[in-house]
Specification:
Blueprint: E1 7-10, E2 13-16, H1 23-27, H2 33-44, E3 62-67, E4 71-74, E5 80-89, E6 101-110, E7 115-119, E8 126-129, E9 134-143, E10 156-166, E11 172-185, E12 187-194, E13 203-214, E14 219-222, E15 227-234, E16 241-247, E17 253-259, E18 264-270, E19 279-280, E20 284-286
Parallel strand pairs: 4-11
Antiparallel strand pairs: 1-2, 3-5, 5-9, 6-7, 6-10, 8-9, 10-11, 12-13, 13-14, 13-17, 15-16, 15-18, 18-19, 18-20
C-alpha cells in the first residue's frame, strides 16, 4: 500500500495530492491503509485548533520513544525510504493483529495542524506487542522526488509523528512533535587536478563543481557561494589535510591552484548545510616528478 501524502498551500487552502490505489488493492476487500490515512490526513489538516503535543482523542492511542534518522538525503528521481520506530500505547480493547486497526509514521514540514507538506509510508507499520497495552512499531517514510513529493523550499528540518486508525469507524489518533529529521537535497562534488604528471615545485590547477538536487526539475544544479576545502593526501597516507578554502562561484564551479610537492591525491570537500548534506569528491591522483 502506498500512503504518499503531500499537502501544499494552494490559493490559501490546503490540497492533498492524489493517491493512486494499486489494482490489487482496488479489486480486493482488505482495508487500504493508504487510502484511509489519506482521507484522515486531509481532513485533519484543516483542524487549526489541534495541538501538536497530544493525540486526537478518538482512539485514545498515544505514541512515544520515536526514533528517526538524523537526515534523509533525497536525489532527483530515485525513491528514498527511511525507517521510523516508535512505541504505541493503546486501550486493552484493541487487537493489533486485527485487519481493522493499523498505524504508521509521518513526517511534516511546518505544524502538524497546518502542514506545508506531509509524507508517510507506502505500507502500515509492523507492530509487535510488548504488553497488553503497548507495542513496538517499525514503519517507513517513502519519498518520491520524481513524482512531485518535494519542493526545493521543503529542504531542511521536518518534524515526525505517528498515526493510528480504525477502518470500521474512521476513528484515529494523530500525534506530532515526537522527533525531527533533516530532509536534504542530495549533493555531488567533482575534482580534476592538472597537469598530470607535474614537475615538483610547479603549479597544479584544481577544478571541480559542487551541485545539488533540484526537486522541481529533477536535475542537479550548481550550489553557489558555498565554502569548500581543497585537501591533499600523500600517496603513502590515508589521511587528507586541508590546504586552503575557496568558494563555489555563481554556477557552482570551483578553481584554485597549489604547488606540487609529492605524489598524492587532491580533492574538494564540502561540510554541508541544513538543506544539503556534506560531500567529498573522490581524490584525483597527481604524479610529481
Amino acid at each position: 500500500m502506498r500512503i504518499r501524502a503531500t499537502v501544499a498551500a494552494v490559493s490559501g487552502a490546503l490540497a492533498l495530492s492524489a493517491f493512486v490505489v494499486p489494482a490489487a488493492q482496488a479489486a480486493g476487500s482488505a482495508p487500504s491503509y493508504r487510502a484511509e490515512a489519506a482521507k484522515i490526513l486531509a481532513a485533519h489538516s484543516g483542524r487549526t485548533a489541534f495541538s501538536s503535543t497530544a493525540a486526537a482523542a478518538d482512539l485514545g492511542v498515544t505514541f512515544s520513544d520515536l526514533k528517526i534518522a538524523k537526515a534523509v538525503k533525497v536525489g532527483t528521481t530515485a525513491h528514498v525510504s527511511t525507517t521510523v520506530t516508535y512505541t504505541l500505547t493503546h486501550g486493552s480493547n484493541y487487537d493489533l493483529t486485527s485487519d481493522d486497526f493499523d498505524s504508521g509514521p509521518v513526517i511534516y514540514k511546518g505544524s502538524i495542524a497546518t502542514p506545508d507538506n506531509l509524507l508517510g509510508g507506502e505500507a502500515a507499520a509492523t507492530c509487535t506487542a510488548t504488553s497488553t497495552t503497548t507495542a513496538k512499531c517499525s514503519g517507513k517514510i517513502d519519498i518520491y522526488p520524481g513524482e512531485g513529493d518535494l519542493l526545493n523550499s521543503d529542504a531542511g528540518k521536518w518534524s515526525a509523528g505517528a498515526l493510528a486508525l480504525q477502518y470500521s469507524t474512521g476513528d484515529y489518533s494523530l500525534q506530532g512533535g515526537l522527533g525531527s529529521t533533516l530532509v536534504q537535497r542530495a549533493s555531488q562534488l567533482t575534482v580534476n587536478a592538472a597537469p598530470e604528471p607535474v614537475k615538483k615545485g610547479k603549479t597544479v590547477t584544481v577544478t571541480g563543481k559542487l551541485s545539488r538536487a533540484n526537486w522541481e526539475d529533477n536535475k542537479y544544479h550548481g550550489y553557489t557561494g558555498q565554502p569548500v576545502k581543497l585537501q591533499f593526501r600523500k600517496k603513502s597516507s590515508s589521511t587528507y589535510t586541508t590546504l586552503k578554502g575557496i568558494y563555489s562561484n555563481s554556477t557552482g564551479a570551483l578553481k584554485t591552484t597549489t604547488t606540487a610537492t609529492v605524489d598524492g591525491y587532491f580533492r574538494f570537500s564540502f561540510a554541508g548545510t541544513s538543506t544539503t548534506p556534506a560531500v567529498s569528491a573522490t581524490g584525483d591522483y597527481v604524479d610529481v616528478q
